[in-house]
Design a protein that fits this description.
The protein has 12 helices and no strands. By secondary structure, it is mostly helical.
Length: about 260
């Protein structure tokens, strides 16, 4: 007996996501009150986009885990939304990918080997600015949402995610230079790997609340799938990323006004 379920989720294109992030950044820079922050955050639509992205990954995960079905993920080109949803669903399903080593492998296979256009999307080197879009940043934000909801389930902390994005956009390492594996031929001999930097500084990026045992990882604990909430109240602004340069706005409260009070 085989079953088939389909889902069509309205994850928007790169141009919509770029505009949404611009609005969010303008809000972070200009909102002087909680009311202005909340209004700007809602107008940006960023948290709504995150919600839809997580809903899609949740659907994929449940279809695999509960229905025992395979899932074909398809979008218009396969470089952006496919990488996002495939990666997030694997994080939800498999605790291995929530370890430092597993997360590195997840990015290598689903983003680097799969051909996400880092040069274009992150405007690196000679990337076309019209093709720039915060697709990988949005993925990292979605990972942060999972970390926020399940703080004992990830071996790494959110400082790891922030640093990963900073190092990518700074171009300090050759790991993300190029749009595919072919364009990176020879780079390993001429540049440094970002993964080496992380392993050399691992103590900075470990999550002290991590509570998954090595035995659970070995056995592939069937109860290890994350029951992700996509309720609006549970999807929060990533203040340690977006508001980190303004200490008057950065608070320990990650709620809707985390960046909004001056």
């Amino acid at each position: 007996v085989s079953t088939q379920s389909t889902g069509n989720f309205p994850i928007q294109n790169i141009h919509v996501m770029r505009e949404s992030m611009l609005k969010l950044r303008n809000t972070v820079e200009s909102a002087l009150t909680t009311a202005a922050w909340n209004e700007g955050l809602e107008e940006s639509g960023w948290l709504v986009h995150l919600k839809i992205l997580l809903e899609t990954a949740k659907f994929i995960s449940r279809t695999i885990h509960r229905d025992g079905s395979s899932v074909l993920i398809h979008c218009s080109d396969g470089w952006d939304r496919t990488a996002q949803t495939s990666s997030l669903s694997q994080l939800i399903l498999d605790p291995y990918y929530r370890t430092l080593n597993g997360f590195q492998i997840l990015i290598e296979k689903e983003w680097l080997a799969f051909g996400h256009k880092f040069v274009e999307r992150c405007a690196l080197l000679d990337g076309n600015p019209d093709e720039a879009s915060p697709i990988f940043l949005q993925f990292l934000d979605a990972v942060y949402q999972l970390l926020y909801q399940f703080p004992v389930s990830f071996e790494f902390n959110d400082h790891y995610l922030v640093t990963l994005y900073d190092m990518l956009t700074a171009g300090k390492f050759g790991t993300f230079l190029g749009n595919n594996e072919r364009s990176r031929i020879g780079l390993a001999e001429r540049t440094f790997s970002i993964w080496g930097y992380f392993w050399e500084n691992i103590e900075k990026f470990l999550n002290p609340e991590y509570g998954v045992s090595s035995r659970q990882l070995e056995l592939g604990d069937p109860g290890s799938m994350l029951e992700v909430s996509t309720e609006s109240r549970d999807i929060v602004p990533w203040s340690t990323m977006y508001c980190r340069y303004d200490i008057t706005r950065h608070t320990s409260d990650q709620g809707s006004n985390a960046c909004g009070d001056k």
